[in-house]
Design goal:
539 residues; alpha+beta; seven-stranded mixed beta sheet; 22 strands; 24% helix; 20% strand
């Protein structure tokens, strides 16, 4: 990810000087991870439209690529593709956006749109490709693009991308002709092209009343068969507009234990394993990469005792972040002072993490108790199983450290579907005060995507917010360049001083298991968006 504080240079001008390649620009895939490959892990159930060939690292022509995930995707609905467990399969594999952000440079690259420009204060115009078809054979055109944006942003589906990227703002979309699309915003939006990179394009036949589990897109792969609870198989789309991918099919399986995922790589049963830890036994097949994930506790703000800022401050003092990293994540994680890492526009370099001071934590809890705050009320610490490596161990450490501060904390581990009920509006309301362990990745590279969903009074993942703070967020969103950087730096400082909705823990580093017959270089987006077209057999 670019470390520049300036927005991507393609945001405010036409991209017409960029080539219109047969295939979009890809991140480097030059890194090979040494020795031979393994046989395909066979299932007793036949895969539809699949030859059932041996594994991805074998000699001769590439066959099925085998990927093992931490968990089964809850859905492949494209408008939920910014959720890690969905996007890692969907984005740029089954479906594609108009514009794609290069995770290495931070630039915006043309994809289904070949160029774009701001044609008035509130309007952007996009020129679209004319040689693309969806996997159902229907043509991609401006009508489909307009439909997809309207479905994701303006409908009543409650798409996660709407809350994550656009908030309460609706967009006016117009198909001028087959290859020309205009998008009008309620107010000037200097980063609209970046926002649209989060919207996956689907055909106009897609339901507008229900979310779809198995989508149709324009990507290099289409869904062959989903054996619920067992595996998901994608097959290469013969009519793909770009360069054909190296692998004719992809088989996804899921295993909750990192040691099991690692063993599938070292034992020749998988080619790529997601979400590993150095302690999982991956050895020389482990490839680390700087992801953009930050882990933190997010507090409910309207239920005692978490409605008292002293209790939230006490939790920040009670967490030994250095100790957690040293014991659980010593291979690259760093203590966090805010929800975004260095390299994202708006990151505040001057913010210091909360120090570990258990005595101060106890004193704040005692002070709140003396003023009548019911600090003995049970706080439920909600965490998600298999969310990231060693999440179970981290959860137990957090429970113990908060308890040592004098708080009554009960740990509840939940699956992905249950976790979303706590994570997204409408939140669970009948379970008392909640401290939710969140993992936030700002793959867009701009603070607006973080603060609008996590800090505004109407944010999809925000339990706090005031009219005054909302005004600061709205004002920052309209800025650009150095002014934008400064505005968001102040917002993160104000959050830590005045609101304290979070106890930041760590900026994470990712680790993939890559079989020796595979060539793939992970980037900051790999944990959320594993682009199979960038994976090649080793030479």
């Amino acid at each position: 990810m670019s470390s520049s504080h300036e927005p991507s240079p393609t945001l405010g001008r036409t991209a017409s000087n960029k080539p219109s390649p047969a295939r979009r620009p890809l991140a480097s895939v030059s890194k090979a991870v040494a020795v031979g490959a393994a046989a395909l892990l066979l299932s007793s159930c036949a895969v539809a439209n699949s030859d059932g060939a041996a594994g991805g690292g074998g000699g001769g022509a590439a066959s099925a690529l085998r990927v093992v995930l931490q968990q089964e995707p809850p859905t492949l609905e494209p408008c939920e593709a910014n959720l890690t467990s969905t996007g890692v399969v969907v984005r740029s594999n089954i479906t594609e956006p108009l514009i794609e952000r290069n995770p290495t440079t931070g630039d915006l690259d043309p994809l289904l749109a070949t160029e774009w420009e701001q044609t008035s204060d509130n309007e952007w115009t996009f020129t679209l490709r004319d040689d693309v078809t969806f996997q159902d054979g229907t043509p991609f055109d401006a009508e489909a693009a307009a439909f997809s944006i309207d479905r994701a942003v303006n409908s009543d589906l409650g798409c996660n991308v709407e809350g994550y990227v656009f908030g309460e703002s609706d967009l006016e979309v117009n198909a001028v002709d087959a290859t020309t699309l205009t998008v009008t915003t309620p107010e000037p939006d200097p980063i609209l092209p970046l926002k649209l990179s989060f919207i996956e394009i689907v055909p106009t036949s897609t339901s507008t009343t229900d979310k779809v589990r198995e989508p149709v897109g324009t990507g290099p792969y289409q869904i062959d068969q989903w054996e619920v609870g067992t595996k998901l198989t994608l097959g290469a789309y013969d009519g793909y507009w770009g360069e054909a991918p190296a692998y004719p099919s992809v088989e996804y399986q899921w295993r909750g234990e990192g040691t099991v995922r690692a063993a599938m790589i070292t034992g020749g049963e998988a080619d790529i394993a997601m979400g590993l830890s150095p302690d999982d036994g991956i050895g020389e097949n482990g490839v680390s990469y700087p992801n953009n994930e930050t882990i933190a506790l997010r507090f409910s703000g309207d239920i005692a005792p978490l409605d008292d800022i002293r209790v939230r401050q006490a939790i920040n003092f009670a967490i030994d972040k250095d100790g957690i990293i040293a014991s659980l994540y010593p291979n690259g994680d760093v203590v966090a002072s805010q929800l975004i890492p260095e390299g994202v526009v708006g990151h505040n370099d001057s913010l210091e993490p909360w120090e570990f001071d258990l005595d101060q934590a106890k004193a704040l809890v005692a002070e709140a108790k003396a003023d009548g705050v019911p600090v003995d009320t049970k706080i439920t610490l909600v965490t998600r199983t298999a969310q990231f490596p060693k999440v179970n161990e981290l959860s137990q450490v957090l429970q113990e450290q908060l308890s040592q501060a004098g708080l009554n904390v009960e740990l509840r581990m939940v699956d992905t579907t249950q976790h979303l009920q706590y994570q997204l509006r409408p939140f669970v309301t009948n379970e008392g005060p909640i401290a939710l362990l969140v993992q936030h990745g700002n793959q867009a590279g701009d603070a607006q995507f973080t603060v609008d969903q996590y800090m505004s009074s109407t944010g999809a993942q925000s339990t706090f917010g005031t009219p005054e703070f909302d005004q600061k967020l709205d004002a920052a969103a309209k800025t650009s360049g150095d002014e934008r950087q400064t505005a968001y730096e102040q917002i993160f400082a104000d959050q830590n001083e005045e609101i304290v909705q979070f106890a930041h823990i760590a900026h994470q580093t990712g680790l993939l298991g890559i079989a020796s017959g595979i060539t793939y270089e992970p980037n900051s987006a790999s944990g959320d968006e594993l682009r199979i077209a960038e994976v090649k057999p080793a030479a």
